[in-house]
Structure formats: structure tokens, C-alpha cells
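Before a computer can learn anything about folding, someone has to put a protein's shape into writing. The outcome of that step, for a single protein, is printed below:
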Amino acid sequence: MTQAPTPTADTVRRLARSLLQDGGKGGGKGGGADSAADPDVRPVTPGAGPATWWVGTRHVLRLAPDREASVRRRRELRLRDLVRPHVPVALPSAVAHGEWAPGLFCSLDTRLAGGTGEEHAVSAVGEADLAGLLTGLREVPVRQAETLGVPRVPPRSLEALRRAAAEAAGRLAEADEFDPDRLNQLTPPAAVQLAAQPGTAVVVHHALTCGHLVVSADGRVRGVLGWDAAVVGDPAEDIAGLALAVGAPAAVRAATLAGYGARPCLRGLWLARCDSVLHLAEALTGRTTAPPPGLRARLGRAWEPIMLERVTDFGRADDAR
């Protein structure tokens, strides 16, 4: 595989200038201050070969690092247009797109106003925004999404995940990072009872991280980024993503407002908890320094207690959704 070139500020500036000019044709969104001859550009996340750049104050430029990512990014533009009418939060719009290197896709998107889920806590009204997101995703036509190339993925085995998390929890216990007895709440029979139900597949964002939630200072969820990972699959995966991003209680409240019953809520909760244990254990393996603090924060949010855990008879839980 040919290695992608490392983008520099100069190359990004030239590319952004070209895309802004293309986007401005016919009175498009490319006009205004960001269409200056030399737009201000800076990487969203500093580092070697950054793939996402701020362009002025109103745009963001995303560079696909490889051909596989290019396919996902092209699909993302079409998927956002399909999803947008169904959800109450904003999705970025593409001003222009093209290739930044041979075969490598790039898009210049509108920048959504607000901070990240790491900068602003989601309020009770913001939880209603998340409920609207989950409700809207359930309404997106699955066949149309698959026609766009959105892949269908089978639900994960919670029992297999439970076993892997139990082994990882033992390693975390040795590092004094986690009490493995907490995983005993998820018994093998419960893991089987919380298996995904047939016929429940929906369009799933599949990457509802703090960084992909655009949150205003008052805690409203104003937008959602990162749609290139979307799949058709288990809706509990998005409940799990929210548990890791905003905490288990808020995620379950949002999912309940969206009409999901106890079974998918508990399934999402335990997907998040097992994932948080596995990710932290993986980060600790072979390290001599502390793992990224974000992983500990994700584990803490996923393991926040919720009242729903008192439900023990999953067969009598509301499984309408």
C-alpha cells in the first residue's frame, strides 16, 4: 500500500482555498470570511500527519488517510443527507469535496457551533436531544441506508464479551485499577437473556463518543459528528456509546425516552461496561506509564449505578423495542 503523504499547513491551505472556491460557485456556502486568499488553517488535534483541520471559523477539512477510509467518507456524505430529516440535532453539511492525494478523499464541511461532550456536561434537556437522536435513527429507512453501502453487522455476543472482560478485569485487579467482583453482577444466564432480539436492527451511529457530540454551554446536544462508522445493526451499541460518553444513568434515561425497554437498555449498559474494562486493560498491557486518563473516565461513567439494575426478570421487562 502506498503511504499517504503527510499534510502540512501549506498544502492544507492551498487545498482549502481551492475547495472554498469550488464551494462558493453559484452562491454556495463557500463565500465569506473563510474564502480569503489565504484561509487560516490549524489542526484540530496536533500531531504527526493530522487528518482534521479547522479552516477559518466556519469550516473543517477532513482528510481520509487511506482508501478504505475514503470509501467510508464518501458514503458518509450521502448517509448524513438520509439521516438529517429524521433527527433533531444538526449534522455537518459538505461545502465541497475532492481528493487531497491520489485516491484519497477529502471533504470541507460546515463547522457546528458548540463544544464537545468533554467540555460541557449534557443537561436534562440535552438528554431529551439524545432521545430524539435515538428515536430518529430508528426511523431511518434501513434498506435505503444499505443501498448507500452502510454495512449490516451482526450483534455481538454478550456472553463472549463477558468472558473476555472477566479475564481483563483480573489484569486490572493486579494493577489495582478495578474490582473484578463488580462483573459478577452480569451472570452467564443474564448475558444470554440480554442477547439481541431478532428483527431489531436499525441504523446505528456506532461511534457516539464525547468528541462526536457537539454540546452547548447550557448542556444541549446541538449536533453529532463522525458518521463514517455507521452500520445497520444492534441499537444497544449506541446506548453503550452514550453510557461511555455521558454516563450510564443519562444514557439509560435517553434510551427510555426514545421508547427502548429494559432489555436493550441493560444490554447497552453491559456492552459499555465490558468494553470499558477491556479497553483499559489493553491500554495497560506492556505500559510503564499511566494509561490515557480518558479511558479511566470512560470506565467510571459506564459503571455509574442505575436503578434499572434492580430488574432481574428480563423476560418480564418491556421488550417492545
